[in-house]
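Batch 3, record 17
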Amino acid sequence: MGEVLVITSGKGGVGKTTTTANLGTGLAQLGKKVVVIDADIGLRNLDVVLGLENRIVYDLVDVVEGNCRLKQALIKDKRYPELFLLPAAQTRDKNAVSPEQMKALNDELKEIFDYVLVDCPAGIEQGFRNAISGADKAVVVTTPEISAVRDADRIIGLLEAAELRNPTLIINRLKIDMVRRGDMMNIDDMLDILAIDLLGVIPDDQAIVISTNRGEPVADGSTSQAGQAFRNIARRITGEEVPFLDLDLQDNLVHRLKKILGFAK
Amino acid sequence: MEENRSVEFKGTGQGLAIHVRFYHDSQQIKDIIQQRINENPAFYKGATVADITCESLSETGRKELEQWLAVEHGMIINSKENVKSKQEEGKSSPSKPIVKAASFQENKEYGTKFVEGTLRSGQLIEHPGDVVIIGDVNPGAEISAGGNIVVMGILRGIAHAGIYGNKDAFVAASVLQPTQLRIYQTITRSPDEVLDRSKNPEIAKLKDQMICVEPF
Amino acid sequence: MDFFKFFIGESKKSKNVAKERLKLVLVHDRADCSQDFLDAIKGDLIRVISDYMVIDESEMEIRMTRTKRDTDDTMIPALVANIPIKQMRDRKRL
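Prediction for the assembled complex:
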């Protein structure tokens, strides 16, 4: 029996889709059988991030409406034979699926797969309600910006109201030099406010843009910091204890000097 | 190895003939074929499949296998049933002109739908007759026509001509760079590698159950 | 410049400004999204207090806010109720 994880954020553009694609890839690397579902009906993107856009014949709505069987709509990844994509419909809208149908679909998929990752649409409307339906756990993605953290807080409240307790947090696009200068909220600032467990931190990395251009997730073999961070999160999802990347945030020269002089803790 | 031989690949004039000799379920058959393809991926890529014979597969099972070969491995499907029905109709002749009067006549009752402007991602044009787009069709946009499709612009999305069984339907575009092309039940997709694609007008139509693209 | 920043300390850093603004916004957000919860409290308060005094229900106000903790300067969320009293009830007559 597998596990359904919904990847959500509230705010758009914080990296839900990139995270879903990379965690799917990372889990498949660990030999897990994984399906990633694009629940953003009408604005699908997970297919292009994985480089599978030209293979789509059937989609999630076709499955739900019974136009095809589930297995016909699952698209096998180019690189990992145990990784599959269930694409969203592009020419339909969010009302084409109901929460009950999503739950039934998730229940069916977790019989076959070890992990079902659901890429949730931005917002808190019907699309969000559909995407979290049938999920066992939730992962909240945020960036170190006031707007993204505020929306993450709202989402955590809504998840808890929907009985999805104890969501975990991924902080994306952390700019280490800005954190050092004190011009970006650091990990502790965000954990202090959101008060949920940290699943991982992804440093801001140009490698992500390059890999998305190519349709190859950065977690796939890349030596970049972001790729390593995604692979670590995948291992944490499987229950392994993996230390957080040493992003060298606090221990810069000025801070050490202040410590000595007693200006800082 | 024993298992490996239970699926036979034979080259014929029309393309590959796949013969499944022993009983297998569709997943086993896929696994065996996958194994064979892995041994020589270059050979199978874009190959034409002329026939699939297998007693243990149902009609839907065979259809699914064909679709899998087309979508996963970029093969072109030219299967027995399609060939048969084509012969029964007695229409097949590769030397025929590409645009036939007959295909226009068939769609006259529904007429031609003209769409002016760019079709963007998420837009779907459905029409039982012919469809003419005066503009570009972007990736993620889809045209589904009972008859022919003509794009007076760049076709980058999905075009499905002849959805109700018109095997003579064609897709023509000023620049033909679709994500996917479908004519009746035959599907092809663009290759994964970025190729130098033609910038000239091209037309795609079914020829011996293969989607052929040629300049016009 | 860095030399001066060193003496100013961390409070003026833009991330601290962000964090403070965010905390304030969130208190309002968290209160906003639980209006039903606030209404429930309001109803219960009216019921209990009415046993002891006559209050002006229409002017009654209840909201979430932030306040400084007495022991130190840490900001903490607080529930503030403003309940205008019209008249005390005579407890002996109860």
